[in-house]
Amino acid sequence: MDDEDDNVNVILRDEGSKANDRRKPELVETYVQLLSRLIQRPPVVDLDSILFFNELDNKDVIEVKGSVSSGVPSLLVQIVTKSILPSKYNGLDMDVFYINTENQFQISAVFEAALNEMREFEGHSKLDEEVKSALTKLKMIHCYNYYQFLVTINNLQDILIENKKIGLIIIDSISAYYWQQRETELSYDSFVLKLLKNVQKSSSEFKILTLYTKPIDFVSKNKSSNAYELRNLLSYDISLVRDEKSNELNCSVRYKNKIKTLKYEITKTKLKWLINNS
Amino acid sequence: MARLENADLGLSESSIVKLRSAGILTVYDFMSLTCEELVKKTDMLYELVDTLQKTIVTKFGGNIEHYLDVYSQERKDVISTGLSCLDNLLDGGFHCRQIYEICGSSSAGKSQLCHWFAMHATLNDLSQVHYVDASRQFFASRIQMILDMRKASVTDFAKVMSAIKVHQVHRIHDLVSLFHELTTTWIESESSSNKKLIIIDSLSLLCAIVPSTELTQILCSFASICRYLANRCRVAVVVINRVRAEQRDSMLTDKSSGKSVPLNFQPSLGKYWQGVPNVRLLIDPLERERREIRVWKSTLLENGKCCFVDFNDEGILPK
Fold this sequence. Notes:
Chain A has 8 helices and 11 strands. Chain A is α/β, with parallel strands linked by helices.
């Protein structure tokens, strides 16, 4: 490496540490790597111990898929609420970065859910200001087309450097623009994998939990190597299904080779887990 | 994706040539590389590359929104349907920034509902209702009839009719163009701050002539502009759609009328569209003039909850 490169985002270490050691310094860490090491991201282990039965790590990737009316937005409201609430209300007190591509998320739902959770601790005292303060932790970006989405993902690193308390990235949904880029003829799985790898360039470096949603039938029929690579990338694979005949709601959670099934109800502000059949 | 030379980034001719020779043609090509990679590939100055990436993000990427403002607007931006029972079902009425779909079989009363919503919104001082009349079912005379039966004044009739803008649209592409036009007009004239209602009667009719191989792609583009318009310009969008029987063999013959009734309904327009509306309502004809309106799909409302209304000369009355 040339000496004039010193100012280009690298940290150099003088290997020998002896005063007269004239060997060329070795690149050991980029600027981004240094920042990712120095910025302590909030732990996510307590996000939902029933759903994430094998504990959660900050570097995990979660896929949530669901059929129509199976409660995916309610699950997201629940996860966002838990994340942004202060620790005195049993929350994780962290920021959430939400890429909203399908406009199914309503901020008023988070407000109601947060208010509900707080009331369990504080009764009916005036909590509006505290909820509003918690809502500032939700950093949301609306995307309206594929390229706006791509530019946003490519800017993720800067967003994560500027917002040091972000502990969770949500992409709702990752498949929204598949039909806007069909000329490239990527399969469903390859499309998701391509975008996810792009997100992971930043999220895994900064050790930030990533959650994305997609429709339940957004799965390639032919299993290619990309499908296996995608499966290996996922820590948790969650499916929410409403049985059209019985109206029963079932959640299946896969963590590596373990599968857990849960029945649930959709209440006004969250999903209520009913039975643990694991 | 915008090509760099058309992206209005203030790039000099020599920079464009350097970028082109490095195979960097579009804004996205530029954003997919790090500053270091761009410097290496193009020999451009680091500061220039960094500034350009920041400009591109501001211009083409999404911006983080302030959610306290959005929250207070979400609660305020509600348009009454004019039916108390339906308002209760919808948590106050049609919420701006949301897409509503009303599904029903032929002659279920979908267009009647659209007339009612348009009339009622304007009577309640909503300055703009845009009625996309693809089915040619919009009749000013029907609105006049309802207002006459209710002994409304000529001023009221004039107020209603001047606030309802009817657009005769026959192709889905024309609808997309109309939405682009409305977005530009509203953003430029700063009327994006007033709440508005758009009714599309009906989307399934506009898509009827689209080849099935192109339908999903077109609907994806339409969904994008629809969401953009709804969010940026404080609009509630109401879309009319038909229903279809899920399986041809699952038809039941109603002995009293001899009509075949599908056992399992599905909204038409295919699987992709099923996830687009925020709220889907199903209007179902019961005996005589009575209709059941049911929440069929919603992210936050209680699915399956319903109300009953009666259609008559006076309009629509809750039961």
